[in-house]
Design a protein that fits this description.
Layout (H helix, E strand, L loop, with lengths): L1 H16 L1 H4 L9 E3 L34 E5 L3 E6 L4 E11 L6 E5 L9 E3 L6 H4 L3 E3 L3 E2 L6 E10 L4 E10 L4 E9 L4 E4 L19 E6 L2 E4 L9 E3 L3 E7 L3 E7 L5 E8 L2 E8 L6 E12 L2 H5 L14 E2 L2 E2 L1 H20 L2 H15 L1 H16 L1 H10 L4 H14 L9 H19 L23 H16 L6 H7 L1 H10 L4 H25 L14
Parallel strand pairs: 2-8
Antiparallel strand pairs: 1-15, 2-3, 3-4, 4-5, 6-12, 7-9, 9-10, 10-11, 11-20, 12-19, 13-14, 13-16, 15-18, 16-17, 17-20, 18-19, 21-22
Length: 541
């Protein structure tokens, strides 16, 4: 029996360590078309229009002669734009810092290759990317007194009669930018998010979370490994959004017209972009609307957009409006954790309270488990007799053992059930502590300054190992002395595993162990039935 318990314990750790392997995203990608880009002859917009009718450009103006930099400053971010290409050149988050706690996070650096909001016309991709646009507007400083501001860029090509107008509306209380894009005499173009816009760091092989292009196509989250993108990829399905993300941040392009196709491009090694393919065909004037989101993967902010952009937070895979078991557990747990934090203002304290609540939920099961293990311990002498008596008759031995279980009302799998049920909870909490930006750089107390990172002094893992050892010692056991000695290495193994786990997860497991010790002590003293005298009822000679 204890061998099975050990197996489940090791399995739970194995799942947590290799969660991306045990709970991978499904491979049922929507239809994807990999093609060399050519201009289509027919309009690609759907019949069901969701946009206002095309209008003449809002203002007329000659192309600018000089490049100008325009600043947008809000309480959440500060951005720099250029009228050369009418693009974003810098995007810096003001409320998130690097590990030093001082330097603000840069989602876009000025030395990038392709800049966000570039319009690429396939048969002439330089004029509207490198041209200097006429500008209507000036530096924006947004706050509670001025909550929104608009910049408009316009560039006309006199030789071809083509034009591009970009109208950008910024908001003081949001990471979103409203975009109105109007073109004239351009039958086909790509509206692109720029090189790695939204990726703060690529991470390493041991990091948690997907880095690269991610899109929601036909209600399916589709990810593309940057290393495997060798040609432009076009998604044929209904596009809700397309984004570039890392573990904690992202930029997303959200088309108001879901009939637009999404494109994913590799610009060079470790440099990708995504965007929308717009093909108005022979229509003289075309107008499309988008929303740009560039900021943290904060669940409340993403959920408020009501387009499932919160699925970029990796609680577990998402497909066709349904969730995995881990996601179904993780999202409510995270909501409870945030609710507790709203009162405690300390995620470490909130984790402790959450652990108590989870433990209370499992009290009936763990109590039955303890009684089952005590019962198994008590009938061990009877089982040894049966094994000796029927050692040459396996079928008879199995029947006699089942009768023994029945006679003494012992469930041989009762000790394993609570552990099986808790594995999804462990994995869900692992995902929460390792992928949610709310826990990034969240302090607990003393030397624990980041609950998403490992304990730099390794105090919590050591205490966790000690509590596990104590729990193991007081737990009913049917092991022989040799097996019992081997089991003593289990806390050491767990301690080794947990050295580099997030301190939030280690804190949870440590508190869970302490509560388990208390429950076992109370159960052994007041509720255990081990003191009852066992009879040989049900034992056949």
């Amino acid at each position: 029996m204890e061998k099975k318990i050990v197996l489940f314990i090791v399995l739970s750790v194995g799942i947590i360590v290799g969660t991306s392997y045990f709970f991978p995203a499904p491979k049922k990608n929507p239809p994807v078309k990999v093609v060399p880009m050519v201009s289509p002859e027919k309009p690609a917009n759907p019949e069901k229009g969701v946009l206002p009718p095309p209008q003449e450009p809002a203002f007329t103006g000659s192309p600018g002669s000089e490049e100008k930099r325009i600043r947008v400053n809000t309480p959440l971010y500060q951005a720099t734009l250029s009228n050369r290409g009418a693009v974003i050149r810098q995007w810096e988050l003001k409320t998130y810092q690097e590990k030093d706690g001082k330097t603000e996070i840069k989602l876009l650096k000025d030395e990038t290759g392709l800049y966000p909001l570039s319009v690429e016309v396939k048969d002439d991709n330089s004029y509207f990317i490198k041209g200097v646009y006429a500008l209507e507007g000036e530096d924006l400083f947004l706050d509670e007194t001025k909550k929104a501001g608009t910049l408009t860029f316009l560039l006309k090509d006199p030789a071809s009669g083509r034009s591009v107008q970009k109208k950008l509306t910024f908001h003081s209380d949001s990471y979103t930018v409203d975009i109105e894009l109007q073109t004239e005499n351009i039958p086909y173009y790509e509206f692109l998010l720029g090189s790695n816009f939204g990726i703060h760091e690529w991470g390493d092989k041991n990091s948690i979370g997907f880095v690269g292009p991610i899109s929601l196509i036909d209600n399916k989250v589709v990810k593309e490994n940057p290393a495997k993108i060798h040609q432009d990829i076009i998604y044929e399905g209904k596009s809700a959004w397309t984004a570039i993300q890392d573990k904690y941040f992202l930029s997303a392009l959200i088309p108001k017209n879901e009939g637009l196709k999404t494109i994913v491009k590799s610009l060079k090694e470790n440099e990708v972009t995504v965007g929308a393919v717009v093909a108005p065909g022979k229509a003289a004037i075309s107008q499309e609307s988008f929303v740009l989101y560039a900021g943290p993967k904060k669940l409340s902010d993403l959920s408020s957009l009501h387009i499932f952009l919160e699925e970029t937070v990796d609680f577990g895979w998402f497909i066709a409006g349904s969730w995995s078991l881990v996601r179904l557990i993780a999202q409510p747990l995270f909501s409870i954790l945030n609710f507790l934090h709203s009162y405690t203002h300390n995620y470490g304290v909130a984790i402790i309270i959450l652990t108590v609540l989870i433990k209370a939920l499992f009290i009936p099961l763990t109590h039955k488990s303890y009684k089952s293990m005590k019962g198994m311990q008590a009938i061990q002498p009877l089982m040894a007799e049966l094994q000796k008596k029927y050692k040459n008759d396996k079928q008879r031995l199995n029947r006699e053992i089942m009768e023994l279980y029945k006679a003494h009302k012992v469930n041989p799998v009762g000790g394993c059930l609570p552990m099986i049920l808790q594995i999804p909870v462990f994995v869900a909490l692992f995902n929460i502590f390792n992928t949610t930006i709310e826990l990034r750089q969240a302090p607990f107390m003393f030397w624990i300054t980041d609950l998403s990172d490992f304990d730099p002094l390794y105090v919590l893992p050591v205490i966790m190992g000690i509590t596990m050892f104590i729990q193991q010692k007081i737990q009913p056991s049917n092991l022989d002395p040799t097996q019992a000695k081997i089991m003593l290495f289990l806390p050491v193994i767990f301690t080794f595993f947990f050295l580099k786990f997030s301190s939030g997860l280690v804190l949870y497991w440590m508190v869970n162990n302490i509560l388990s010790i208390a429950q076992q002590f109370i159960t052994a003293r007041y509720f255990a039935n081990g003191g009852k005298t066992l009879s040989r009822a049900g034992k056949k000679g």
